[in-house]
Amino acid sequence: MFVSNWALLSNWTRSALPGSQKSHENKVTLRFVVPNGEAAQWQSLIDEFETTHPHTDIDLVNLRDQDAIKPQDPRAVKQQYIDSFTSEKTSEKTSLYDLVFMDIIWVPEFAAKEWIQALPMQLTDPELKKFLSDDVNGGIYQKKLYRMPVRSDLGWLYYRADLLKKAGFEPPETFAELTDISQKLKDQGLPWEYLWQGRQAEAIVTVFVEVLHGYGGLWIKPETLDVGLDRPEAIAAVQFLHGTMFSPKPISPKTLTTQREDETLTRFLEGKAAFLRNWSYVLPRANLEDSDIRNKIGVKPMVYKPGAGRTSGGCQGGWGLGIAKKTQHQKEAWEAVKFFTSEAAQRKLFLAAGDGLPTRRELFKDSQLVKRYSRYPAILDFFEKQKPHPIVLRPAIPQYAEATCILQKYLHAALTQKEPDIERKMQDAARDTRILLKTNNMPNEKEGCVSSDP
Fold first, then answer.
1. What DSSP string runs through 192-218?
2. What DSSP line would sit under 115-158, residue for residue?
3. What is the pTM (predicted TM-score) of this model?
4. How far apart are CA 193 and CA 259, in angstroms?
5. What is the predicted pLDDT for the residue at 83?
């Protein structure tokens, strides 16, 4: 577990923080932390904000010169915020962090525990209509807005367009077509694997909810807390994923149950697979000048099983900014949130880096961005025009971290065994989830259910 360096973090004035160069009695300092791999992307935005807001400094913890705490992944970022919110060294009236950079799945938990505050914007504000609706909805809890979206993301199915064309295939639309094409590519001696993420972590859940959506199934309905993990659609979804590895003619390597996004991407970039389920950052990386598959891949939503009301769907991801409940600088924090989520700031961010997607609708038509990311207009059409709605949201519930832990445990157990009782495992997953939602307690804690990426 990530352990905060409280000897460092207990210093409250910027002049007392290692690496700090700015300290004025009449200045306000706003602090937050991000996954370390993207910290450098924030530097120019911070510099611009401080120039246009001369009475406010931004202390991005990752960028401190000495002894900075630099969380490497979302799990570590979340733990760092939680350590701050719950530490005995945090006074009743103040918070170490003023801004909170958070994954879409953290919002209900942080809001329910009163670690973040509702933002001073009505849900009917016209400004919110300038953002992708799903990203806005991901920041709402109990009809209040807690997070403004900075970066969106979506799960996609990538495919080797050159291989499919050579073999005479159109991109698959259904689970059956994906399986058939992969097997026939293998028969022709071409790269054929279908890669997805099966490690016991949040990655396996994002894969599963897309397949579950394609079968017309349900995990948890937030409005009623109805659980559907033991229904035929959920069982069929697990059977499909299991069959990709254990059928008589498998289309996926069994090693996927130990792998997450970067590991499967590496294999795809090496030209060893025909299909890959992954996030939006794949396309720009695959098209780098030194890529073996540059200009050879296509992208589409996940496949589905034909039937009434069923369609392709991608799991909604993304990050945004909120305000800590105990900040002493609410006005300045809100100004920072508005600045960092503005159209100009997002344009600058996405011209500098290609990971994720903008959250403002107009940026998908921006000439500079479209020149670099030609698929932006088509992605916007997908978000807004495809029916039924193609975005798959994970359940917005305060117990999400515990619920995903339960699903990960049983799902991973089913997918690592050659002949599992899938129906029984999903019944157990549904049972434990219902206990959690009814009692707010984790069942079977002695079995060591641990969420790798909450």
1. -EEE---STTHHHHHHHHHHHHHTT--
2. SEE--S--TT-GGGGGB-HHHHHTTEETTEE--EEEEEEE-EEE
3. 0.90
4. 15
5. 92
The residue whose two tokens read 């069994």 is 254
Whether the bond between 388 and the residue before it is cis, its omega within 30 degrees of 0, is yes
What's the token pair of residue 269?
């970039």
Contact 314, 219 (CB under 8 A): no
Quote the tokens at residue 254: 């069994």
Is 141 exposed, middle or buried (CB count within 10 Å of its CB: 0-12, 13-18, 19+)? buried
Retrieve residue 270's tokens: 């090496």
SS3 label, residue 353: coil
pLDDT, one tens digit per residue, over 367-417 is 999 999 999 999 999 898 888 889 999 999 999 999 999 999 999 999 999
Rg (CA), the chain: 22
Structure tokens at 383: 């978000």
Per-residue pLDDT tens for 270-291?
Answer: 999 999 999 999 999 998 889 9
CA distance 102 to 100: 6
Q: In whole angstroms, what is the distance from residue 56 CA to residue 93 CA?
A: 20
Backbone angles phi, psi at 151, to 5 degrees: -135, 130
